[in-house]
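Slide 14.
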Amino acid sequence: MHDSMGCLAAKLSNYVLLTERDLAHLALLEREEQTFQRHYEIVAAGEPLKNLYIVKEGWAYSYVDTRDGRRQIVKLHMPGDLIGFESLPSATVACSVRSASTVVLCPFLPEALQMVFSKAERLAAILFAMSCRDQESMVSRLRAIGRMDARERLIQMLLDTINQIRLTDADVKWPFTIPLSQTEIGDYVGLTNVHVSKTLIRLEREGLIARSDGYRLEILNEAAMERIVDYENYHRALDTSWFPEY
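Slide 15: predicted structure.
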């Protein structure tokens, strides 16, 4: 990522050439910063929507609680991600958000999007496209949870994670850190922490991954993992043929 380019701009530049005007608009969204320590409840579901956030550093996740107290993590947020877009239609926070590691977020008011949609039509188009891409990714996750076994679910998650990281860090250094406990991983893929532990051990024995120091992991055979789950990379290039012209 270029030093002068914000995280969101670095992510979007994978899909479309950003003009100086686009970069200026995005820089305004990343003007402020807030730091939250690990496991901090940033927003709670049901609250009025006050801010949207861009992830600058660290990880967070969105989740919902069931009536019986169980938690379902619905999305992981990494540098360059937008948090809160799904809440815009109702102006009420749809999912609680918690930091998975120490995380630096750039908050901005939803009203700031008026500037983007009125003065930067092509930038608005890519933000809309990225929201649609999130829907594609969610469908893939529902398929994994509903139709895949534990081994396949974890493989799918690891492949998605590494491809998401590559959007803002093309040269991922191995091993990389996943700042999620086994319970949090289980809440994301629909497994118990015990099942997650046993499945990670199995993947190690199969020579697909290697782990060290708890949270550090290396993917050893990405191609084999992709074949196992018939992996579809939803972080690939976007069709921009319908975007407005500059």
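Speaker note: The two ends are 24 Å apart (CA to CA).
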